[in-house]
């Protein structure tokens, strides 16, 4: 789905063959697109600022195991494998300027081609900026407190304790790293949707003039 959404937002000649998974919930297309990072040769950008942006997009630094969803740093060279790509992206800096962008084989290091610019999309569809994240956390806390109080009123003390512990753990994970196991269960709060409304799906990432067969 990552490859599908990335292509839908950057290309017009895109054909998507999907199963029933196309109606599974995803994050909002607007937030996903806004968090996309476009890098161009000649662009002024500090290397450390780029690393921070990768982390905020939920990519993980790993200088040893270089796999999808990770990036590594070697001096003035930063390499990343987007979650939707088979090739790695190498960004070479000269001072605070992007000097070269190349696509390479992640295992052999063979340079496949050189690019003048590249799009990097988030590692998760459920990504939120600081303000949106804070609103979501407040909404999750509110619902947690309501559900816990409801369970206690029904004398379901064990269930109340489990719910409170699990949700509190998820909240802490969201605060610290921006994601948690089962984050899709909180999509309503990230989207600001009312209870009972359907979530965004892959179909929401298509342009208005798309053809469905």
TrEMBL record:
Residues 37-126 form the UvrB interaction domain. SUPFAM superfamilies: P-loop containing nucleoside triphosphate hydrolases. One of its GO terms (cellular component) is excinuclease repair complex. Pfam families: UvrB_inter. Residues 133-168 form a coiled coil. Transmembrane segments: none annotated. GO terms for molecular function: ATP binding; ATP hydrolysis activity; DNA binding. Keywords: ATP-binding, Coiled coil, Nucleotide-binding. The keyword Ubl conjugation does not apply. GO terms for biological process: nucleotide-excision repair. This is Excinuclease ABC subunit B.
């Amino acid at each position: 789905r990552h490859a599908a959404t990335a292509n839908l937002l950057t290309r017009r000649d895109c054909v998507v063959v999907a199963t029933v998974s196309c109606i599974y919930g995803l994050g909002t297309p607007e937030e996903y697109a806004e968090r996309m990072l476009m890098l161009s040769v000649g662009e002024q950008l500090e290397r450390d600022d780029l690393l921070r942006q990768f982390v905020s997009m939920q990519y993980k630094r790993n200088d040893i195991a270089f796999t999808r969803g990770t990036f590594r740093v070697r001096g003035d060279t930063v390499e990343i494998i987007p979650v939707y790509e088979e090739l790695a992206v190498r960004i070479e800096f000269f001072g605070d300027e992007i000097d070269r962008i190349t696509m390479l084989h992640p295992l052999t290091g063979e340079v496949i081609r050189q690019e003048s610019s590249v799009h990097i999309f988030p590692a998760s569809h459920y990504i939120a900026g600081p303000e949106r994240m804070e609103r979501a956390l407040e909404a999750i806390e509110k619902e947690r407190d309501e559900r816990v109080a409801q369970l206690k009123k029904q004398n379901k003390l064990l269930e109340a304790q489990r719910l409170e512990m699990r949700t509190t753990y998820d909240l802490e994970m969201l605060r610290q790293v921006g994601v948690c196991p089962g984050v899709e269960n909180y999509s309503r709060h990230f989207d600001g949707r009312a209870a009972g409304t359907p979530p965004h799906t892959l179909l929401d990432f298509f342009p208005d003039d798309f053809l469905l067969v």
